[in-house]
Amino acid sequence: MSEAGGPLRGYRVLDLADELAALCGKMFADLGADVVKVEPPSGCSTRRIPPFLDERGGADGSCYFLATAAGKRSITLDLEQANGRELLARLAETADFLIESFPVGHLAGLGLSYEALAAGNPGLIYTSVTPFGDLGPGATWTAADIVGWAAGGMMAMMGAPGRPPLQVSVPQACFHAGSEAAVASMLAHLERVRSGLGQQVVVSMQAAGVWATNSETAFAALEDRSLQRSGIVPAGGTRSSLYRCADGYIQLLIGGGMFQPTTTGLLDWAREYGPLPAAVSDIDFSTWTPARNQAGDPGFVAGVAACESAIGEVLSRLTKAEISRRADENGWVVAPVATMADVAHDRQLEARGYFQNVTQPGLDRELTLAGPFARLGASPGPSPRPAPGLGEHNADVLCGELGVGAEEFARLQAAGVIGSAPPGQMRPGTALDVSRAGAHR
């Protein structure tokens, strides 16, 4: 019997993280946890990351925030003020997880270290996501995503040989760190199920990047030399290339061995459009081996080039869909290079119900968001919810759940401890609507 709400329903997560670990809290929300995003009154820095929806700036317009904060609730606390710290400590007394990405030692300096909060809640799992960990010479270094991508070794493998390394345009190091933080937090939860005790978890963005390149790291250790950037043509008996087609690009592998059916099939297809160069006929695919491909045999190299030219000529006439259809029918190793527009209309993702539509308050429009990272048959996750407005749940959490009275709430607002929702962003249940505050759990 399936039970909606997700496997982490009933668990509370305090999410104090910025972009270094924004994905961690999102993964918890996808699994049904009540994720309370604790932001400064000015809003989390993730609200100011471009691109912006409809070129709209402000706290509700960042596409990055709308994606990574979907399913979370938002409260605002100024942790530089004693009252803000006291409220967070009170929230931590009944929380199951806390995620933070402040510079190492910052929260401890505010009296909000793991040890301080665990004194009031021994079961708390306190996950710290850092650029380089909390030990060693880099413990106090700060770093943006591109620094983590470079320091973890991944950037050195990206790009063409003889040219500078490349960064992937979409943030990757932070997402690796965030997902590793979610996994590590759940491992700590497994131990808590056994012992009843929480613990501090420390994640290094650099180490998460290294883990993502573990095959290259192992190669360096075993061979006493490092793999070098090879671009789209790796060393070996195959040729991995991008070919332009009528509406984009196709990635394919040609060569001998297991890739011979792809190569000969594509060449047969090319023959339908005209005769092939003589050099193609001279290739014996049974001898297309790594040694032969790397030996520099002029005749063989010319034949390979002729094959690529013939295949490229026919593919340039066809669309990705036409090529993919023929490849599927024949079992060829061919993959269309999907654009973001292709992904948004991908039939396989649609068949799985991956994309989810939510109505985003404050924007007065429906948004299509990426769905959960996994599907659990016996405990499917909660219904999709939009990203919260800044401080949208101040009253719900602080008054309805923590027991802050209306007068105290007003004093906290006046002192700037919790701030208030800007004009045009007030929604039912926001900080300015104390009368509607209610329990969530």
What are the SSEs and their pairings?
Elements: E1 12-15, H1 22-30, E2 34-39, H2 63-68, E3 73-76, H3 82-92, E4 97-100, H4 106-109, H5 114-120, E5 125-130, H6 145-151, H7 173-195, E6 200-204, H8 205-212, H9 214-223, E7 238-245, E8 248-255, H10 260-271, H11 278-281, H12 290-294, H13 298-315, H14 320-330, E9 334-336, H15 340-344, H16 347-351, E10 356-360, E11 365-369, H17 394-401, H18 406-414
Parallel strand pairs: 1-2, 1-4, 2-3, 4-5, 5-6
Antiparallel strand pairs: 7-8, 8-9, 10-11
Helix pairs in contact: 1-7, 6-8, 7-8, 10-13
Percent of residues in β-strands: 5-15%
For the largest sheet, list the strands in their spatial order. 3-2-1-4-5-6
Poorly predicted tracts of residues: 234-238, 421-441
Which oligomerization state do the chains in this entry correspond to? single chain
Global shape: elongated
> What is the count of DSSP helices, taking H or I runs of 4+ residues?
18
Structural class by SSE content: alpha/beta
Mean pLDDT: 85
Q: CATH superfamily name of the largest domain?
A: Crotonobetainyl-coa:carnitine coa-transferase, domain 1
Under the CATH scheme, the architecture of the largest domain is: 3-Layer(aba) Sandwich
